[in-house]
Design goal:
single chain; 3-stranded antiparallel sheet; 10 strands
Length: 190
């Protein structure tokens, strides 16, 4: 097991790569061809099911050091690895492509965006990542800790989960293992 799971991190060492539109104008521009956005009826539907939780739970953490990329491109994803030790990729995938601002990109291209020597954590939230995706990431970056949940959750549920996880790093250092255990405990009490 990589030691990154036990390394202490702060919120200022995390990046949140949100690959979807975060405002009405962007949503309306991308609604027709975005595989993810096209599943929503209109801006109000999307705002209610995705953006309200993002704005309420994730955006406030930016003022405390979380680096957030809104409507992220593949370039933003690449840069996040140079700037932070832990990266959340919040996107959508189909078979072997992942959606970014530029559309659905082949997974091989996304994989090339990850530096081979990355020794941090990648939280891969792209619906339900495939075993092949995880395997390819681990081959490219053997020292990278890849966190993922192979279950389908709504975007709103994912945002709630990530807000709970990231809050564990808010005012104190915490290991990923410790933070994740705290979130599991918190969710079990519900």
């Amino acid at each position: 097991m990589s030691s990154i799971w036990r390394a202490n991190l702060r919120l200022t060492e995390w990046a949140f790569v949100f690959a979807f539109p975060s405002d009405r104008l962007s949503f309306e521009r991308f609604h027709a061809w975005s595989e993810f956005c096209s599943q929503f009826n209109n801006w109000e539907d999307y705002r209610t099911k995705v953006i309200d939780a993002f704005d309420e739970l994730i955006i406030p953490m930016e003022h405390h050091g979380l680096l957030i990329y809104r409507h992220a491109s593949i370039r933003d994803f690449r840069i996040a690895f140079r700037k932070r030790r832990a990266v959340v990729l919040f996107s959508h995938h189909n078979i072997f492509s992942i959606e970014f601002r530029g559309g659905m990109l082949p997974f091989e291209r996304v994989l090339k965006g990850m530096p081979r020597g990355f020794e941090g954590i990648l939280e891969l939230s792209v619906c339900s990542p495939t075993a092949d995706m995880i395997s390819c990431i681990r081959k490219r970056c053997p020292e990278c800790g890849v966190a993922y949940m192979p279950v389908d959750l709504t975007p709103n549920d994912w945002i709630i989960y990530f807000s709970q996880l990231l809050l564990q790093f808010y005012d104190t250092e915490s290991s990923y293992m410790g933070a994740e255990a705290s979130v599991r405990q918190l969710r079990a009490k519900r």
